[in-house]
Design a protein that fits this description.
378 residues; D-Amino Acid Oxidase, Chain A, domain 2; 2 domains; FAD/NAD(P)-binding domain; 6-stranded mixed beta sheet; 21 strands; 27% strand
């Protein structure tokens, strides 16, 4: 098999920056392109904090990938000297009898993940800022952590450049075209480059750049709000972020600076984005009703009037699983897209997997269930 050495990475954001790092670390000639620059706020990596946790509600096949990501997060911090992740634990709350909670508990037990089950009384004693409805359970995932997304993207891209990668900032890619005889043409306003392999990690721009995807990505506008708490309880005891399923699917992250709490909502509250370049970044007062409702019912210690509001974009697939692997019918084009609001924690692992696919044509990591064609292995 011909081993490609010259690899283009299209999009240097959440996934692309990590892909560049892992490729450069393995000696590839890496050429990155981004329509903005690493750490920008147009995609899904904005908002100063994201959650690392051991398992998804409803899916256990990610656990080996999360273990891989866990070690690579530590490696990236060591190589860059940057504090990118703070181990804090993560609270996951859902109905005790729900399939999601049953799967979460069985996955933790089957994989030996460090966790603790908290009933209503224990949660109230340890984390009084949260209300737990009757019939609900809380799980403290001790692998949980708070990630710094913008700093992480910049750190990974900078490390890749230290290792020899070249990054074209503010350079949108207009076309990715398979070349006769093999390889890929990368077309920008500055001209055309030829590479052996292209890894496409452009987030919400994926449908425009690769219109032939077998499954399109549903691009959504995501609103986050920041609220001041009335007490310091939010920042005590490790200040764990949290994920809640029913009666209001949401997540929250105490800010690393100890000032506010960031809140975000589930997919049901995300409006479609027909054109990424036209994202409506203005959050209107009428959009705050659901935030006020969940605060009143579940987190009354928070001031319902936010001190900050921001809108971002995320890409979703119908299944909730991203597309990771070779573009069907194109051995020299690898796609990573549609991480559905929960992929940032996996990004170093996805960088390693993309490096495998680009340099070796395959990977030993278990990502066959994420193949863009929906069947087989990546």
């Amino acid at each position: 098999m011909r081993i490609p050495k010259r690899v283009a990475v299209i999009g240097a954001g959440s996934m692309g920056s990590q892909v560049m790092w892992r490729l450069a670390a393995r000696g590839a000639e890496v050429i990155g392109y981004d329509r903005f620059a690493p750490g920008h706020d147009r995609g899904a990596a904005g908002g100063e904090s994201r959650i690392f946790r051991a398992v998804h509600l409803g899916e256990s096949r990610y656990i080996p990938l999360l273990r891989l990501a866990d070690g690579l997060w530590e490696q990236l911090q060591a190589e860059t000297g940057r504090s990118l992740r703070r181990r804090s634990g993560c609270l996951v709350m859902a109905e005790t009898a729900s399939p999601a909670m049953r799967l979460l508990l069985s996955s933790h037990a089957a994989h030996g993940l460090d966790h603790e089950v908290l009933d209503r009384e224990e949660l109230a004693r340890r984390f009084p800022q949260h209300r737990l409805p009757d019939g609900h359970t809380a799980v403290l995932d001790r692998m949980g952590a708070i990630l710094r997304p913008e700093a992480s993207v910049q750190a990974a891209a900078a490390r890749a450049e230290q290792l020899g990668a070249r990054l074209h900032r503010y350079t949108p890619v207009r076309e990715i075209a398979p070349a006769a005889g093999g390889g890929v043409h990368i077309v920008t306003d500055q001209g055309t480059d030829h590479v052996d392999t292209a890894v496409v990690t452009v987030g919400p721009w994926i449908n425009t750049l690769l219109p032939g995807l077998p499954r399109s990505i549903d691009v959504r506008r995501v609103v986050c709000s920041w609220h001041l708490p009335a007490s310091h309880d939010w920042f005590a005891g490790g200040a764990p972020p949290f994920v809640r399923a029913t009666p209001h699917d949401c997540f929250g992250i105490p800010s690393p600076d100890g000032i506010s709490v960031k809140l975000g909502l589930s997919f049901a509250h995300h409006l479609p984005v027909p054109e990424p370049e036209l994202l409506d970044r203005t959050v209107r007062p009428e959009e705050l009703g659901i935030f006020r409702e969940l605060i009143s019912e579940l987190m009354p210690d928070l001031n319902p009037d936010p001190i900050r509001l921001s809108a971002y974009m995320e890409g979703y697939t119908e299944s909730g699983n991203p597309l990771v692997g070779h573009l069907p019918g194109e051995d020299d084009i690898i796609v990573m897209a549609g991480f559905s609001g929960s992929g940032f924690k996996l990004s170093p692992a996805m960088g390693e997997i993309a490096a495998d696919l680009a340099l070796d044509g395959t990977t030993d990591h278990p990502v066959g269930f994420l193949a863009p064609a929906g069947v087989g292995v990546a």
